[in-house]
From TrEMBL, chain B:
TM region(s), chain numbering: 12-34, 40-63, 75-93, 113-133, 145-165, 204-223, 357-378, 399-429, 435-455, 467-487
Residue ranges occupied by any DUF112 domain in the UniProt entry: 18-441
Sorted UniProt keywords: Membrane, Transmembrane, Transmembrane helix
Protein name per Swiss-Prot or TrEMBL: DUF112 domain-containing protein
InterPro entries for this protein: DUF112_TM
Domain of life assignment: Bacteria
Length: 164, 497
């Protein structure tokens, strides 16, 4: 078998099969049975859903071996390859989310958002610097004030001890 | 009925609603006009702000934003030929060539009028038939409702992804994630893996915002759509090139009406959505318009057809939502989540328990359409060009900050933010691999009712298997088969050339 010829469908199908098998395997430990009920077992629907997901995974794998699918996929890949992609930009955005997620409880949401926003704007070459600082500081503070007006309080982190 | 409408008017006609409609329409149009911002992202930003509002005001805000976003989407399509969404792609087929001929103003105004009229038609249709539909739904028993939910998921799965297998798998993955949390009959947790937060059901807002909006930001960023292009368009040769004339209105009127009808019917079918509405209307206009040879090369009828067909989907989409609790597409799912935030269960029962509220929402839709006609024209005359030059380099980071803050506001927990980011990544991976995000969302929303109706149907059939031979069950099954055949034909015809 020529591995290079296996198209994305194969891996997508494989993922679905592994996903389904994993959850089918952990179901007995994760869902307790309850005796004495007229209704279907609590495991029934999860088993059915996972079995069908696995079945569709197998179909996708089988589809990937069809010659025309391999060819179409290769054409698609070459078409998509023409467009620019940026893993760096994507990672910056994911990093921003994770940073705010982790830092909010310690330094407060607004402060974390200010740092993240300024860093992102600098990374995307927004100039001049005063524009970066202006947007980076004003937007999170406006959001904080807007939410406070709606009586929604974002995490304050260590500022809580200082402010209150 | 009159008492109900009077109550509905009381619910709607408050200063808050009347102020919010134009504001939300303007904000929606601004966001919709910026290349790379979709109406989904616009609604996603607003959802958390609806938390403190009354249900009518919340849906008024969301739907006005959505309508504004849809009509604003035509601005980028016409002026720079880069549609922000697939639904707006049909508009750029004729709109951009017209702009290159110096008729950008004419095309923009036609798009705004056709959008608002398509939307108005769809909302009137919604109000006319929704009571009847809800009455039918109220008389249905669990097996029939189960049949309808399964049908909705099958149609959404088969029409929203290139490969139907991926569409069905997406819907099933959505159902699977809806199973997390307590079992409805025993209350025992499922797949909690010892994590306390996973013993409860996943909150709908972070899941929806993650899969629909955050994933879209990731996707756009990954494919380097962060820069906006500046349009270099010729100036109008004469005054009439810059405006929609009465003659233009008369010429495009029949096409607008025809496309509104098509769009509204497409909107009532779960899974078909505004893209099919726009392309189907455009291809129908090719057969009926006064200037069929010009369609696709720069025809006003083409712009009107695409915009009316696209916008008419919005109101009609609420028919399956309010009558059966089934969201027809991603936007309807977001409206559903806003109502759920207020503790309302959307479905036929809502007409019995909160009739004035439901009709108050419908009145707000009509008022928004009327305001959109005037506001839309004003916006495209004076603000269209500057809007297309706003760079998403500033916007995407701000959208993320707003989304994270909004999710925290709704869930009041850091776990909610984790769910948002996790589902943002799941949505991104799904989009990258051609899986259907709308099917996933609809599977997630309908998972719980599906399970409930399946359990009840099982008990009913166990006690008396003959209920499956009841005329109402057989008629429902036959109607659904008929709709499926119709949808199959419609979707084949609407494939963009």
């Amino acid at each position: 078998m020529n591995l290079q010829k296996l198209n994305a469908s194969f891996y997508q199908g494989l993922f679905l099969v592994v996903f389904a098998l994993f959850f089918i395997a952990v179901t007995p430990a994760q869902i307790d049975l309850y005796e004495g009920s007229d209704a279907l077992s609590p495991r029934f629907i999860p088993y059915i859903v996972l079995t069908i997901i696995g079945f569709f995974g197998i179909i996708l794998i089988l589809q990937s071996f069809k010659k025309e699918n391999v060819e179409t996929q290769q054409e698609n890949e070459s078409e998509e390859g023409k467009g620019q992609k940026s893993l760096r930009d994507l990672l910056i955005f994911i990093g921003v989310c994770i940073f705010i997620l982790l830092a909010s409880e310690f330094i407060g949401y607004t402060f974390a958002a200010i740092i993240a926003l300024i860093a992102t704007l600098i990374a995307f070459k927004v100039r001049p610097l005063y524009k970066v600082i202006l947007i980076g500081v004003i937007v999170p503070i406006l959001i904080e004030l807007l939410y406070r007006a709606l009586e929604i309080y974002l995490p304050l982190g260590f500022w809580e001890n200082i402010l209150y | 009925m009159m008492d109900l409408l009077l109550e509905a008017f009381k619910e709607f006609f408050i200063l808050e609603n009347l102020l919010l409609i134009p504001l939300a329409l303007i904000a929606g149009q601004i966001l919709g006009a910026i290349p790379g911002m979709s109406s989904i992202m616009a609604i996603a930003i607003v959802i958390p702000f609806t938390y403190g509002l009354s249900p009518v005001t919340a849906v008024t805000l969301l739907m006005s934003f959505y309508k504004g976003g849809l009509s604003g989407g035509s601005i980028a399509s016409i002026l720079i030929g880069t549609p922000g969404t697939a639904a707006a792609a049909a508009t750029s087929l004729d709109g951009y060539p017209l702009a290159k001929e110096g008729k950008a103003g004419k095309a923009l105004e036609t798009a705004q009028i056709a959008s608002a009229l398509g939307s108005l038609f769809s909302d009137i249709l919604l109000i006319s038939i929704i009571g009847f539909m809800a009455q039918i739904a109220l008389n249905m028993t669990s097996p029939e409702l189960l049949l309808i939910v399964v049908f909705a998921m099958l149609t959404v799965g088969s029409f929203t992804a290139g490969n139907p297998i991926k569409g069905f798998a997406s819907a099933l993955l959505g159902i699977f994630f809806s199973l997390l949390g307590p079992d409805p009959t025993t209350g025992l947790p499922r797949y909690s893996f010892g994590v306390l937060e996973l013993e409860a059901k996943l909150d709908i807002v972070p899941v929806l915002l993650g899969v629909l909006a955050l994933s879209e930001v990731f996707y756009e960023v990954y494919y380097k759509k962060m820069q906006s292009k500046e349009g270099h368009l010729p100036v109008p040769k004469n005054k009439s090139d810059g405006r929609m004339t009465w003659q233009d209105f008369k010429d495009t009127g029949p096409t607008t009406f025809q496309s509104s009808v098509i769009g509204a019917f497409i909107g009532m079918m779960p899974g078909l959505g505004p893209t099919i509405g726009a392309f189907l209307s455009h291809s129908a206009a090719k057969r009926t318009a006064k200037d069929p040879e010009k369609l696709g090369k720069g025809s006003l009828s083409g712009v009107a057809a695409a915009e009316a067909g696209n916008n008419a989907v919005a109101g009609a989409n609420l028919v399956p939502l309010f009558s059966f609790g089934i969201p027809g597409d991603a936007e309807a799912a977001l409206v559903l989540s806003a109502l759920m935030l207020h503790g309302l269960t959307v479905g036929p029962q809502l007409f019995v328990s909160d009739g004035p509220l439901v009709y108050g929402i419908f009145i707000s839709l009509i008022v928004a359409d009327i305001v959109l006609i005037f506001l839309g024209l004003y916006m495209v005359r004076y603000f269209a060009k500057p809007l297309t030059k706003i760079s998403t380099r500033y916007l995407y980071p701000t959208v993320i900050i707003l989304m994270l803050a909004g999710t925290f506001g709704v869930t009041r927990s850091m776990f909610g933010l984790m769910v948002l980011v996790a589902f943002g990544l799941i949505g991104f991976v799904m989009k990258m691999n051609g899986f259907s995000v709308p099917a996933f969302i609809i599977g997630f929303i309908l998972g719980a009712p599906l399970e409930g109706w399946l359990q009840r149907s099982y008990v009913m059939v166990k006690n008396d298997a003959s209920i499956l031979l009841k005329p109402s069950f057989i008629i429902t099954a036959l109607i659904l088969i008929g709709i499926a055949i119709f949808m199959k034909k419609v979707s084949k015809k609407s494939v963009p050339e």
